[in-house]
Amino acid sequence: MSTLFSLTIEHMVLVLIAIAISAIIGVILGIICYWVLYLDKVILWVVDSLQTIPSLALLALLMIFFGLGNTTLIIGLILYSLLPIVRNTYIGLTGVPPHLKDAAKGMGMSKLQRMRKVELPLSFPLIFSGIKIATVTALSIAVIGVLIGSGGLGYPIYRGIQTMNFGAIIKGTLPVVIMAVIFDFLMSKVEYKLVKRAK
Amino acid sequence: MKKKLLSMAIGAMTLLSLALTGCGSKDTVVIGSKDFSENIILGEILSQLVENKTDLKVERKLNMGGTFINFEALKKGDIDLYAEYTGTGLTAHLKMDVITDSDEAYRVVSEEFEKQFDISWMEPMGFNNTYAIAVTREAAEEYGLETCSDLIGVSENLVFGAENEFFNREDGFEGFCDLYGLSFKGDPKMMNVSLKYQAIGNGDMDATDAYTTDAEIVKYDLQVLEDDLNFFPPYYAAPIVRNETLKNHPELEEVLNLLAGQISDEEMTELNYQVNVEQTAVDQVAKGFLESKGLLD
């Protein structure tokens, strides 16, 4: 059987892959929300609703289409991570001070240039904090991946629950908690720097 | 520079995800199991047996969610085999009525699975892990309970709780109460299967469903009530395998049937006890069992 260490690494890699993909999709969706009138409500409603589906139900549904294993878990985690990322991107972009947008326009920048050079950089601290929330949440949701046959720390935790072995439950849970704390700490530091630089 | 780093990171992650997903090769058999100890032990026994007796590689997908996930995965070909119970095959997968005769039940499921799902039932492994109703020692003594019929007239004083699945089955809570004419105190409590014995041990409830091979019956000193009206169907466990897998690896059938009739009720309870109460690792318990039967080369 795999060691606790290798399961921890696997757990982390699964989450990071999902977050990386979710960040790309989420920021794009956030920009679409900001650019296209009326679509903002639809997109935000969809990502909101995704969040309300119980995680096991979502994974069981995804399993029917994508089969067992890590891919399905990653897809599930991506869907769960979208909400904070899309929402923060949207809030960040709408929150850029109007005089800065006007100034950029006045300099003759195109819509795309304004996004790349002004709006996106100014919203980045908020987007990053969305990614941080998504990462910490995904670390704990990934535990149920074992129920659809994917790797990570779910197996030792569920075995601990099934055999009422509290030592085993804690041994499996601790790495999840430690990872969450470390990620939260490091990303908060980055976030702080980003906010300071933006000011 | 920044862009290069980003694209490198994305590239690395894509590669990693491909590596993690690991496309199963042709000579690999994927063995699944449900999410409770007995089924995981059986999954591990089957895995070790296949590894020992054939040249095939085994990929273990043990401890996946309940019956639904395993069966869907088997139909799709995500797994090649897992251990199923005749009663579950009959009521959950075929949606048929309960058959109380165990040979007849096995005959019907093997025929229908062949026809409807292209899946084969191997020989049963021997034990019958059926449902039973178990009550606390105190309740049994206070009301003099030995059979399920003894519950008539006193069940109103008892709190019933069970895992969610028991409330959604043909042969579950509702049918049981209807046949015996029972109603329990308040609403029944529903919980995760692993927490059931903990709850009855804590005194949160007086009666629950038990699997007859559960080690916790011994651990928590519960009284199992005799099913005198024969409500619960037989649940003989057997490996079920995709026919496609059997076609590609015909040697599997003989190997899996080495387990036919090898595990009695008492032996299965003992294996469950080793894992759930003595906390021995599943792979050790499986290995010990196979060695004691002389099934490992």
Detailed description of the structure:
The complex is a heterodimer of chains A (199) and B (297). With 199 residues, chain A is mainly α. Chain A has one domain: MetI-like fold (Orthogonal Bundle). Chain A is built from eight helices and no strands. The longest helix of chain A is centred in the C-terminal third of the chain and has 33 residues, at 166-198. Chain A is elongated. The N and C termini of chain A lie far apart (51 Å). By secondary structure, chain B is of the alpha/beta class. Chain B folds into two domains: 26-128 and 235-292, Periplasmic binding protein-like II (D-Maltodextrin-Binding Protein, domain 2, 3-Layer(aba) Sandwich); 131-225, D-Maltodextrin-Binding Protein, domain 2. Helix content of chain B is 44%, strand content 15%. Chain B has helices at residues 2-21, 37-53, 67-76, 86-93, 102-117, 137-143, 173-180, 196-201, 216-219, 243-248, 251-256, 265-276, 282-292; strands at residues 28-32, 57-61, 81-85, 119-121, 131-135, 160-163, 189-191, 207-211, 223-225, 237-242. In chain B, the strands form three sheets. A five-stranded mixed beta sheet of chain B has the order 7-6-8-5-9. In chain B, helix 7 (173-180) links the parallel strand 6 and strand 7 (189-191). In chain B, helix 2 (37-53) packs across helix 13 (282-292) and helix 4 (86-93) packs across helix 5 (102-117). The longest helix of chain B has 20 residues, at 2-21. The radius of gyration of chain B is 22 Å and the shape is globular. The mean pLDDT of chain B is 90. At the A-B interface, helix 1, helix 3, helix 4 and helix 7 of A face helix 1 and helix 3 of B.
The strands making up the biggest β-sheet of chain B line up spatially as 7-6-8-5-9
| SSE arrangement of chain B, N to C | HEHEHEHHEEHEHEHEHEEHHHH
| Count of separate DSSP helical elements of chain B | 13
How can the largest sheet of chain B be summarized?
5 strands, mixed
CATH class of chain A: Mainly Alpha
Helix and strand composition category of chain B: alpha/beta
Looking at the overall shape, the CATH architecture of chain A is Orthogonal Bundle
What would you call the shape of chain A?
elongated
Which CATH top level class of the largest domain in chain B fits? Alpha Beta
- What percent strand of chain A? under 5%
H/E series of chain A: HHHHHHHH
Q: State the distance separating the first and last CA atoms of chain A.
A: 51 Å
Radius of gyration of chain A: 19 Å
Mean pLDDT of chain B: 90
From the spread of the alpha carbons, the general shape of chain B counts as globular
Q: Considering the protein shown, what is the CATH homologous superfamily of chain A?
A: MetI-like
